[in-house]
Records
---
Amino acid sequence: MKKKLLCMTLALILSLSIFAVGCSSSKNGAAKEKESAKQQTDFEKIKKSGKIVLGTCADYPPYEFHKVTNGKDEITGFDILILKEAAKDLGVELEIKDMSFDGLLSALQAGTVDVVAAGMNPTPERMKSVDFSNSYHKIVQSIIVRTEDKDKYKTIDDFKGKKVAAQKGSTQQDFIKEKMPGSEFKGLSKVTDIVLDLKNKKVEAAVLEEPIAKAYVSKNPDLAISDVDVKGNENGYAIAIKKDNKELLDSINKTLDRLTKDGSINKFMEEMVKEEAE
């Protein structure tokens, strides 16, 4: 009887050991698969999928804007031409996702998009959460006002107590807060809404990047670029990439270097300014 009981006990212990080993192996296998997927870089995922996904806010001509060609709406612009070249150098297709400007970096961090190009300045605050390519275009800000009010504003101080609009989370927002003290900032997601607010007298002025300001003023005779001197605010735009993606960052910087050296950057800007004005 004792011998039989001992045999049964040993059999039970053996069964439990086999079960534990099986569970451990299964868990280890799952963990290894998870770790392997985690180790796959964004660069490798892009190459494997055959596409790179660009996040942008397509209401910022000539950088990115909607255009109807042969009855079909498409997104084009200076940034788009640059990213098409980057995609070509990677050997993949470019997919574009249009979203609000203030949601772009969140989408990048969440992995919804692979890169962001939207006339974005690499501020110290943004660089805490994402990496940036080399700067590819120097920018100058412009203040636009209603044509009827242009003579009211001679210096930056004349905007004290006035409501001034710009895109939320943009370089222009920083400019208003730093360079236009005493003015009241109003943040909006789209440039079209900013221009509409200015035309409808909901704000007294708006800050836009110079080529964008010129593009909107050329189509709206009731708006004008202020004569107020805003020199010395030059900065640069760059492409945002998730942290720790050196291969992708190096590839994009290599493309930017090529486009700068062969003069394509300047040609792209001239082409898009002309196209947007048509």
---
Amino acid sequence: MNALETNSEPIIRFVIFLLVLLVLLIFEIVNPRRRLYYSKKRRWLTNFALSVSNSIILSVLLPFVGIGAAVIIQKNGWGLFNLLDLADWFSIPLYLLLFDLIIYLQHRIFHKVNFLWKLHRMHHTDLDYDVSTGIRFHPLSILISSLVKLVLILALGPPVIAVLISEILLNATSMFNHSNWHIPKRLDAVLRLILVTPDVHRVHHSTNPDEHSNNFGFNFPWWDRLFGTYKAQPTMGHDSMQIGIEDFNDQRSIEFFPALAQPFNDKPTSNSALS
């Protein structure tokens, strides 16, 4: 990517974000998967406010994460890919695969380590499940995730375009697999062979500990199958299953400031969530 393309990267990502959001929102309205029980206005205001806050915090504290870091690393020839002089046709898909594996492993660690779980727990305490859930993350969780991505970029030295694709895919698939879109059963059966579909990831947001300890994948479903954390369907079915965390099932969870403060409050954390 040249300098002009690099400077336009935020615009490219934002436009794609809006397009994916709009398409998924239309699908949710036309063919919803589940009935939503809580105020969509309140939930969306909170979830989008969190997303905007995260973007501002990242731009201030870690302005060179992602594309900026990749440009610097490429100019200096750092990282394993540059050391091995890998061709782009090989290094781009390899990076996307390794990036997705790291996201999967990071996700599992966020469920295992108590402090990290408290940060990530806020994502799980959305009381309904739709496209906006895919952008609901605590700022500290986003900062830690960004540092993990920075370390990966430093270690591998991927092409700049690979980093851009990975960021776009991460945002798009997060909204996709959290969407309330009712994908036909036969189509879902095919898609879940190559993608984490909403029905696959929704299981991970169940209040049932045996279910939210599975299906950690974000883009590709292969890691869950490979590491034994795949569960095809929720026990109670998608229509009857409960979404969220039992200790945080009141409506304060869908308000902005209580959500921000949630990792630091005194409510007990279920040990089963850390399994």
---
Amino acid sequence: MRLGGPLFGESTDADSWIKLVKNHGYSAAYCPVSSSASEREAQEYVAAAKENNIVIAEVGAWSNPISPDVKEKETAIQKCKESLAHADRMKAFCCVNIAGARGDKWDGPFADNLLPETFDLIVQTTQEIIDYVKPSYTYYTLEMMPWIFPDSPESYMQLIAAIDRSRFAVHLDPVNIVNSPARYFSTGDLIRKCFEMLGPKIKSCHGKDIILSSSLTVHLDETRPGLGQLDYVSFLTELDKLPVDTPLMLEHLSTAEEYRMAAEYIRSVAENNNITIS
């Protein structure tokens, strides 16, 4: 597997970006340029990544393509199309978004999120995005979420079947579906089920951790890898069964030091379990 994360420091071109990636000890990276980059600039980064054995893991399309607000929905779908096309030209492993939300916060919890009609809307918008772009290299993926489809490996399998597009795949962030004490205390079982059901479709993963506080009623919060309950032995063991270039991308930390400690923890778990991270 490959390890990557956000970069701290300034880069102005492909060469300085490569130096930053290497200085962080990463072999995978988030997409370094936006969809507004010229074709020449984009290809300079693609060539530099290939020459230096760096994989571009993902392009984020963060938006709400199922918003009840028509204008927001249309804008989001257009962003997803542009992001997927950009991921394809950048030779990224995937373009990733969440399904969205049926309310005024793009990733918020709303009662309508889990209705059958919302499932159908996710299917329709995802098909529209993929059919418009027709990617030949990359994949469109959705992160699982605690309160919107897909919210489990089972519902992800249902979406895969319903969307029925070869360029629809899986982005796995297991912390996002640790949404109950039962799941919190059995993250290894949850992770193994995700890989058992979705493994061949997984194109990229996010690495973080989760902790349950003792305050009533249930408070689950993200934390740095190594400080929570996520079973990283199971996570890395299952990841190790996927193609060797599959990225594990760190996220949602605040400082370079936090990312350094997160990477150090993940590498130590891998080393102690004879798992190779390139």
